[in-house]
Amino acid sequence: MPLTGYLVLAALVFVIGLFGVLTRRNAVGILLGIELMLNAVNINLVAFSRFRADVAGLIFTLFTIAITVAEIAVGLAIVIVIFRVRRTIEADHLDLLRG
Amino acid sequence: MTEILGFWVAAVVLVAASLAVVLTPNLFHAVLWLAVALVATGGVFLLLDSPFLFAVQLLLYAGGVVTIVVFAIMLTERLVGESIRQTSRFVFNGAVLAAAVFVGIMGFLLQAGVVARPAASGDQLRDLGRALVGPFGGPLQLLGVLLVIALLGALYFARAED
In chain B, which residues have their Cβ closer than 8 Å to the Cβ of A70? Predict the structure, then answer.
């Protein structure tokens, strides 16, 4: 399979994740969409690393995986705090910062 | 030949599971579909001769991330009843914007030439380890600091009120 096949697959997964981020009402659902988008980026990095025979792409993938785990941990902690304070995690109802 | 067959299987599973993640009305089912999508991504890593990343993907994503998302859903929604069902909004606008981004990316991809796949290197894991303690040693230390900060921050946010 040529490099373009992997890149098209990653682009598809990326836009599906983008669609999820734009349409989900629930904060956890939005985080799931972000997960899909970051996953697509990882496919790109590994594909370029393989086709250019350069190990740097794999290192970047390891770093993005670790940073994504940190991001989802902090994001879910924030979601739980918001639920405790507002009793909802609907993104439309979270307007505390609106002037 | 096996690689092309494997690619199509992984691609179909990955795209179908991703669509299920964003379209299913039940948030709990969406997380389970996300686990399928993450394992399929690991399969793509295998096709790209990266068994180490496949293992990392299974351990960290399919094992760790899915577990904590399930916990977050169980803490913030009632699992029984209809409260976990989600309706989507702006579906048409979201689909148009996503399709536009896809067309834009495809515009770039179609201009690119064909790249030949080089032969697999002998010991990828050794190269990876040497790079992690060699040129990428500093960033690796920073990554450890970031993980500690993030986990302490998450712990601080979610701690019990006293």
Answer: 146-147, 150-151
Chain centre distance of CA B94? 21
pTM over cut 0.95: no
Residue A74 is encoded by which pair of tokens? 């902090």
On chain B, the residues whose CB falls within 8 A of the CB of A6 are 7, 44, 48
The CATH code for residues B2-88 is 1.20.120.1200
The residue among B25 and A43 whose pLDDT is bigger is: A43
Kindly list the distances between the CA atom of residue B129 and the CA atoms of B32, B33, B82, B125, in Å, as whole numbers in the listed order. Answer: 33, 33, 49, 6
Comparing CB atoms, the residue among B14, B47, B75 nearest residue A80 is B75
Q: How far is CA B15 from the centre of its chain?
A: 12
Of the partner residues A15, A29, A92, the one whose CB lies closest to the CB of residue B102: A15
- Residue B99 has a pLDDT of 92
Instruction: Give the model confidence (pLDDT) of A58-84 as tens digits.
Output: 999 999 998 998 899 888 888 888 888
Per-residue model confidence as pLDDT tens digits over B139-160 = 999 999 999 999 898 888 877 6
Q: How many whole angstroms separate alpha carbon B102 and alpha carbon B95?
A: 10
Q: Which domains does chain A have, with CATH numbers?
A: 3-93 (1.10.287.3510)
ipTM above 0.85, yes or no: yes
